[in-house]
Amino acid sequence: MSGIRLETNHSEISELSNRNQAVLSDDPLVPSRSIGAFEEAPDESESGEEAYVYFHIDPKYTNFVNRIIEGYEYVGVMTSVDNEGLCMVRCTPSTRSLAIDILQSLPEYVTIEG
């Protein structure tokens, strides 16, 4: 094994430690309001589940329908609920209508609940 000697610059370590202490604060954390897509911070008083879209498909088409949903970025996430073909798209209130439109465009594969 070769003899490698590590040198430690204690003044640099001390300076980094002081810089890290300056960043820490006792201020409480607050939700970010810098999300460019929202004029105001979103209302989080509800769970969000009321925006989910439930539908039935033949399980052999699960991957196909999921790929279509994924192709529309940021619409939602498709999840299989059971082995019988009940699925849902976890979407937001603002993307729910688009998710429904996408699923309705696949009538030979999808039957929307409700």
TrEMBL record:
Record Pfam families: DUF4911
InterPro entries assigned to the protein according to its UniProt record, in alphabetical order: DUF4911
Designated name of the protein: DUF4911 domain-containing protein
Source organism of this protein record: Veillonella denticariosi JCM 15641
